[in-house]
Amino acid sequence: QEERAPMCGVPFHSAENYIARLVSKGFKVAICEQVEDPKVAKGIVKREVTRIVTPGTNLDIQSLEESRNNYLMCVAYLNNKIGLSTIDISTGDYYVTELENDRQLFDEINKFMPSEIICNDGFMVSGFDLDDLRNRLNITIYHLEPWYFDDAMCVKALKEHFKVNSLDGLGLNDYNCGMIGAGALLQYLYETQKNSLAHLSHISCYT
Q1: Which of 68, 74, 114, 157 could hold 85 in an S-S bridge, CB 3.0 to 4.6 Å?
Q2: What is the pLDDT of residues 95-148, one digit of tens each?
Q3: Which CA distances in Å does 23 have to 26, 63, 64, 102, 156?
Q4: Sheet of 204-205: strands edge to edge?
């Protein structure tokens, strides 16, 4: 069960500091903005969530070390293989691979040192030492609902984002599990960032 912070309003000039402090503790922070003119609003001014800041999607440069990428990683345990996708949304670096075992996964986590891992139920019950990731490596872990990892949904998300009719041109033909990790990650980004993500224009597959 995710721990939830209370809803609150803060002065605009102080918002970044509050957001950075909450995100560093593993919270998700929903940013709400007014979407109608207060002068013509009847009653409370309408507000909508315009972005959700998470540890792996924090774009506040002041809260990040300049020399360090801020990676978000998606882990999908599927059919005795592990689909892995990793992204830095500030640079657009977007990677996909497939792994055979936990040892390889541990090596990838240590290589990228993501601030946030999103995953399917399979990873949560895999026996992987999640407490070590949380407590020693200070990685926030969120497990996502199964629909994020649905094959058809992942294919649709990737095709629509990269504006292709098939996944052939993306090099994902031999990465069935990796494709699911990449698709789940992309859907999570659309849900939290609520923008076009147009700068994510290339995906790199590696072994």
Answers
A1: 74
A2: 999 999 999 999 999 999 999 999 999 999 999 999 999 999 999 999 999 999
A3: 5, 10, 11, 27, 30
A4: 140-143, 116-119, 72-78, 81-88, 93-99, 204-205
To the nearest 10°, report the CA torsion of 105, 110, 112, 116. 80
pTM confidence score:
0.85
157: nearest Cα among 54, 74, 52, 57: 74
More confident residue, 47 or 52: 52
* 42 touches 178 (CB < 8 A): no
Cα distance between residue 24 and residue 95, in whole Å: 24
Give CA–CA dist 183/72, Å, rounded.
Answer: 13
Task: Report the phi/psi class of residue 80: left, alpha or beta, with left for phi > 0 and alpha for psi in -120 to 50.
Answer: left
Cross-strand bridge partners of residue 72: 87, 116
